[in-house]
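WARN retry 2 of 3 for item q-0093 after timeout on previous attempt; input resubmitted unchanged.
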Amino acid sequence: MATREPLLQLTGVTKRYPGQAAAQEPPVLAGIDLEVARGESLAIVGPSGCGKTTLLNLIGTLDRPDAGQVRLEGQDLTTLDSRRVAEVRNRQIGFVFQMHHLLPQCTVLENVLLPTLATANEALRDGAPDRARRLLERVGLAARLHYRPGRLSGGERQRAAVVRALINEPQLVLADEPTGALDRAASENLAQLLAELNRETGVTLIVVTHSLELARRLHRVLELRDGTLREVA
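OK item q-0093 returned
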């Protein structure tokens, strides 16, 4: 029986920090191999400075590996020119960062809709306002559509950032320490929300986190240490 191709596949991905001498120091990422199925949720954990964010940036096309392949839907992203990479990043990948990066002069709804301005898909763009309202209602922000970020709590701002990451209906959402700036209660609420959205929408989710509360809600946990990934039981 034929197996379904993974959504994301990394093969031999290697990366050195700028200035690292090959003969003196091992690379921060040393030949990473990884397969992530469609609809899967995955946590990447590990000590500070081990390269978790670097790995996420390579997956999200914000950086390129020194060696190896990053394939999304079978397409090697490392071979694409900057224009095509930007198209893939905008259409197929959503990002959630530790800091929400909401524009303070825009309302919650306007912030959520910002990624749709760059899409060439007219149907996706035309349906975005209704989709944004539905998602904001789903995350408990229906009454905050026209608030500016300064009137929101930290947890509310991060929930708005999650909706922004989902607005273009990406196949893959990458979250880098999304609960890192939140208090315990808000962190637990966001962890639950991310897991629920993964189940409800089928979006593939990869999260870099120090939060065990968040990691235990996801399908798999991998530890990055000494440049390699290993499954955590």
